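Section handout 9: paired folding examples.
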Amino acid sequence: DVQLQASGGGLVQPGGSLRLSCAASGFPFDDYAMSWYRQAPGKERELVAIISSAGGTYYAKSMKGRFTISRDNAKSTLYLQMNSLKSEDTAVYYCAKDSVRNRWRIPPESDYWGQGTLVTVSS
């Protein structure tokens, strides 16, 4: 079974940093593009970033320069390094797997989602 386990969320002050992780299992991780999404209270889910199976990346405009998506294929783990956090970054962050092997598609089409990890940016 495909499993995606996100972790690393928490409470952080504005300007601070957090690193999210997403442990994947049940599929050949290095063959799939992976994404991070987020959903803030009362808002629709939005794409944060996507990384291809080869390591290419794409960021939503508001996150570019502050967030870094990466992957460790040996550990089947996806990461999101978040710096210079703002209150508007408060959201539940989800990792997701692309539905097609070795595809690069923006926006991505994801078929499996992690359970989400809450990031709260507040003083």
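Moving on to protein 2 of 2.
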Amino acid sequence: SAAGVWGGLVQAGGSLRLSCAASGYTFSRHGMGWFRQAPGKGREFAAGINRSGSNTLYADSVKGRFTISRDNAKNTVYLQMNILKPEDTAVYYCAAVRESVLRLTAYIDDYPYWGKGTQVTVSS
């Protein structure tokens, strides 16, 4: 499971950092990702990071604005969100990649472990 995901309310152009502390599995054996779900829409991939933190993958909609990182010593994955836009408003979820999947992936079915979502609201 994952816990400790804190979102919030921010104005457009602002920044927010999400943190997700994982437990119940060996964190360093899993790639990690962030997904988001806007009202009335499906859950979509935002960013992913490999086990060591050496490689990352981003959706086009967040590329250049969001940065995913991880600290394996703290079992924590982060999402730094800059230049936020109203269309970034969504519930954000952290998720762990299935241990057998070694590649970076945006495929939701590769993520069987999910944290509690947190609301991020960007006002215009």
